[in-house]
Amino acid sequence: MIITNGKLNDKEDVRKLWDECFDEDSTEWRDWYFENVYKESNVIGGKENGELAAMVHMNPYDIFMRGSRTSAVAMAGVATKQKYRKQGFADKLIKYSLKKAYEMGYDFSFLYPFNYEFYEKYGYLLSYNKYSYYYKYFNDTKTKEMIKTKQFSEEMFSKIYSRFAAEKNGFVIRDAVYYKKHLKELLCDRNELLCFYIGSKAGYLSLNIDENKAEELVYEGDIAEAIKSAAAYYERDLTFENLFDSDNIVNTKEKHCMARIISVESIFRKMKLKDCDIKIEINDDIIDENNGVWHIISRNEKTEVQKVQDMYDYKIDISLLAPIITGFKLENEKVSEIQNALFSTVQPYIYEVC
What burial class does residue 43 get, using C-beta atoms within 10 Å of its C-beta: 0-12 exposed, 13-18 middle, 19+ buried? Predict the structure, then answer.
C-alpha cells in the first residue's frame, strides 16, 4: 500500500469509498459533508493497484480544554474498500495519521468509533458519554412559554453557544464561521430549526420531525426548562440527546466519543492547572516524543513542563491521559488521583463534529 494525501487523492474516489462504507449516513448529510467539511489536504489515503483502497480524514477543530484554547483533530471516515480488508491498511493509516498530527502541532484527537476496542490499541479511550432524555408532554399552565424568532444571525448562534458551554470542559469552539456551515447540517434529514426565547434567555433547537427527536438543543438557561417548554410548543413528547449529564431529567447513558492526547508537552503547557508538583511517566507506542517522565509544576496558573530523568509519582499509558484531562470518570483509582491532583472537577462535554 502506498500512503498518499492532498491532491494525490481524487475527491470522486474519496466520495465513492465513503458511500460504500458509511451508507447509514443519509445522502443529504453526505452531500453536506463533502460540500462544507471535506478538504483534500485533510485526507490520508492508501492506494493499492492504483486505486484508493483505504482512507482517514483528519478534520481540524479548536477545543476549549481546561481553561485554554487547544488544537484538535477529529479522525473521521476511517474506511477500507471491501476487497482490501483484513490486510492491515487501516492500521498503517491510523498510525501514520497520528504521527502526522503530532508533526502538524495538534494537541488532542477524538473520534466516534464503530468499535471501541479497535481504537484502544492506538491510544484512544472513551472520554465522553451521550445522555438521552425522554420528556412526556402534558398540558401544564406553569410551563414557561417558548417564543419563536427569526432574528438570529451566525454571530448570535455563536454567542448563545458560548454562554451555554461556558462552565463545561473539552467543548468545540464555535464561531460565526463555524455556524455558517453547521446551520446547514442542522437542517439535514427533515430537521426543523427553531430559534427561540424563554423570557430573556435565548436558545435554538434542531428537531427531527419524523422521530420527535431534538437532535441539538442549546439554551442559555436551565436545559430541563427548555425541554419542557419545547414539548409544550410542539404539543408532543420529545426525546433529546445531549453530551453532558443534567440533573432532574430521566436519562439513559451510552458510550459516545473516544479521545487521545497527541502532544503531552503541548497540552500541559496550555491548560490551567491547580497548584501542583507531579511527575508522570507516559508510555506511548506510536508517538515516541510523548514517552518518558514528565515533570509538571503549576503555581498561580503558571505551568512548567519538562521531561526529566527521574522517579515518577504515577506511570500510565497515553490512553488514560485523555479521560484524565476531559474529566471523564473511570473506575480507576490512579486516574481519579491524577485528576484530583491536577484539576478542579468539571464535567466533560462535546457536541458532534466530523
Answer: buried
**Which residue from 269, 320, 321, 270 is spatially nearest to 295, judged by alpha carbons?**
269
Are 257 and 351 a contacting pair, CB within 8 Å?
Answer: no
The C-alpha cell at 30 is 453526505
Max Cα-Cα span within the chain: 68
Give the CA distances from residue 350 to residues 140, 165, 336, in Å, rounded to whole numbers and listed in that order.
32, 9, 21
Q: Which residues contact 215 (CB under 8 A, 6 or more apart)?
A: 186, 191, 206, 207, 208, 241
Strands 276-283 vs 147-148: parallel, antiparallel or unpaired: unpaired
**pLDDT per residue over 7-56, tens digit each?**
888 999 999 999 999 999 999 999 999 999 999 999 999 999 999 999 99
d(CA 117, CA 263): 22
DSSP state of 247: T
Q: What does the pLDDT look like over 252-293, one tens digit per residue?
A: 889 999 999 999 999 999 999 999 999 999 999 999 999 999
Pairing of strands 191-198, 171-172: unpaired
